[in-house]
Design a protein that fits this description.
Low-confidence stretches: none
Number of strands: 0
Shape: extended
Structural class: mainly alpha
Length: 70
């Protein structure tokens, strides 16, 4: 993965006040390159209540196949 792909996303998250989480650099040797971006790790996550509301909303949606009548 290129740094030029990640940094714009980080900036967009900051401007939108959305938590930014950077898991790791990709590639074959992931453990060799680690999780450092701009000299630090980014572990921000949304509040649990936000994540739970999203999960509940999608759980309440019927499956796509169940909406089809044959």
């Amino acid at each position: 993965m290129h740094c030029d792909w990640v940094l714009p996303l980080k900036g967009q998250c900051r401007r939108a006040k959305v938590p930014f989480f950077f898991k790791q650099w990709g590639g074959v040797h992931k453990s060799k390159f680690g999780r450092i971006l701009d000299g630090r790790t980014y572990d921000a996550m949304p509040k649990r209540s936000v994540a739970m509301n999203v999960r509940r909303r999608f759980k309440s949606q019927p499956a796509i196949g169940s909406r089809l009548s044959l």
